[in-house]
Amino acid sequence: MRLSQTKSDSSQPLPEGRGSESSFGLTRGYRAATARAWSGDGVRLRSLIEAWNGFFFAPQAPTPIALFRAIYGGLVVVTLLLLRPDWLTWYGTHAWVGLRTMQQMEPGTRLNLFVLLPRSDAWIEALFWVFLCSAISLSAGFLTRLNSVIVFLCLTSIQQRNLYITHGGDTFLRLAGFFLIFAPAGADFPSIA
Amino acid sequence: MQQDRRLPAGSMSRPPANRLRSVARAGGRALQHLVINAFLLFHLLAITCWAIPFANPLTALSRSAVRPYFLWAGLFQSWDMFSPLPKSSNIYVEAIVLYEDGNTRNWAFPRMELLNLKDRYFKERYRKFVENLNDDAHAELWPDAARFIARVNNNRPARVKVVFLVRHWSAIVLRGDGSYDGAPWDAHIFYAHTISARDLE
Question: SS3 helix, strand, coil % of chain B, rounded to 5?
Fold first, then answer.
């Protein structure tokens, strides 16, 4: 008999019913409880992994995320149109807050296209028009992945350019835009491509 | 015949190149799965640590660890709208523009309470900006704001000489019957900026 082998391990298969319980009650009860605990943990861990995989990887109808994408794109378009009279007031070369002031007040390396653009209002206007076209395309579901990247880059850039005029709604759009890049938002309703 | 027996059923008819390709594809899928899971786990934990409203050494440490990435990617956020101290006064900011000939002009930021519904949507950014401008912690904004106001008002024969930023405030007072009322308005100049010719370019 091996050391790890218990008496019950070596016993013959037990008959079902009271007889077996009364004969081996203590040993079997302990073993059963231990087995249940281990199996419970196993089940819990397995079901946790299954739930995780189910939530993040199970194929789902793309309609909700596509609908979200359409609404999201629409909100970005509305935000840009409401800002339209003040594009250069807030983000131009002679804006309320200069780019250098912003970098001094909010230091750190950040995704900000304004840092890369030539210091010219024409370039800044061009950036906004690209942003607007991209947001409209994203809303329509045209070249969704590419446009979700462009929209996120532009949105992050205008917010980093002037963080002192952003509110909670802007923060939501920025964060949602980041995760939208990785979502299969280009499929299904309502999409033109 | 012996070799055939060693192969799993179904793979006998498959050429080796196809088998290799399917193994590589399965490996690629597993790697993709791993990368996606790592990405998800990292962001879930990092965002939780960043946004959790408790101050303890562990969250402080994790915040400082993810800070460079969050600042770079724009994933930072804060949800401290009305806490811990809700505002206890009404405030608005105006500017007094002094020209070289001694004349002055009052210039006001758009005030939401004085605008109609449509204009409020278009000028909402001013509300947020003035809120920050008024904060002494953001004093670095003041010179830029003064220069902007000077440029906007530089449309007279005499050049703009000085811009004063004026804070108007009225404390919100709790009355005996439990209602709130505004105290009389007060004002003071919190910043003066002498405008150079270069500021007006």
Answer: 50, 20, 30
Domain boundaries, chain A: 1-60, 63-182
Tally the domains of chain B: 2
Residues in chain A: 193
Q: Are residues B114 and B195 part of one domain?
A: yes
- Per-block average pLDDT, block size 10, for chain A (193 residues)? 36 38 42 53 80 88 91 97 96 96 94 95 97 97 95 97 94 96 78 49
Q: How many Å apart are CA B75 and CA A156, to the nearest integer? A: 9
State whether B61 and B128 are in the same domain.
no
- Residue B132 · residue B115 · CB < 8 Å: no
Helices of type H across chain A: 7-10, 18-57, 63-83, 87-91, 99-105, 113-116, 121-140, 144-161, 168-180
Same domain, B190 and B102: yes
Residues of chain A contacting B, Cβ within 8 Å: 52, 56-57, 82-83, 85-86, 90, 94-98, 101, 104-105, 108-111, 156, 159-160, 164-168, 171, 174-175, 178, 182
- Do B141 and A160 make contact, defined as CB atoms within 8 angstroms? no
Distance CA A54, CA A51 (A): 5
- Number of Cβ within a 10 Å radius of residue B22: 12
The boundaries of the domain holding residue B53 are 17-73
| Same-domain status, B48 and B23 | yes
Please state the three-class secondary structure of A169-183 as a single string: HHHHHHHHHHHHCCC
CB B71 within 8 A of CB A110: yes
Interface ipTM: 0.82
Domain boundary among B25, B48, B73: B73
